[in-house]
Amino acid sequence: EDQVTQSPEALRLQEGESSSLNCSYTVSGLRGLFWYRQDPGKGPEFLFTLYSAGEEKEKERLKATLTKKESFLHITAPKPEDSATYLCAVQAVLTGGGNKLTFGTGTQLKVEL
Amino acid sequence: DVKVTQSSRYLVKRTGEKVFLECVQDMDHENMFWYRQDPGLGLRLIYFSYDVKMKEKGDIPEGYSVSREKKERFSLILESASTNQTSMYLCASSFMRIRRQPQHFGDGTRLSIL
Prior knowledge:
heterodimer, A: mainly beta, six-stranded mixed β-sheet, five-stranded antiparallel β-sheet, 58% strand, globular, B: mainly beta, 11 strands
């Protein structure tokens, strides 16, 4: 059974204080790892897809990296508008029809002035 | 931009009622999904569909059914609503022909069963 564990559950940062969120996974053959951002009362918004170990993707203050067992979402010099819940999900090779995803429970990030 | 639209943002229903949640996507996606999201449990897949009139059970299908009569529309049905079905319901869609494509989500329906 595919599993995704995210840590920490919650993180409070000062503006400008860089940090990393962790997503560890077990999957029977990784097709892709996805990061999403979710604001309160909204649906998840797609950020990145990573396909293979060693891959990195960047968007503004966010950088996602992937190893064979985990992914990190690095946040550099965060701003209050980066406050959100960040979700990680994996898609297995043997996912059958539908391209199902298995989600972690998320990291709730709060960035304070 | 992909647009996934859920018909209601908030819904209040009574125990035993039959409840319909509607979702429409405008990107010609083959796949459509229904999730529920609860604190501490994350997103859990209820049902999904990869073609018109096709459906497959997800991880927690009990108490739910779905309907997909048109490619762009996917409905979630609570046959006889119960209080433990109070939750945030999220619809998503994605391409099937192209693997590794992300799912795109609507803004959710917060459903309360009294």
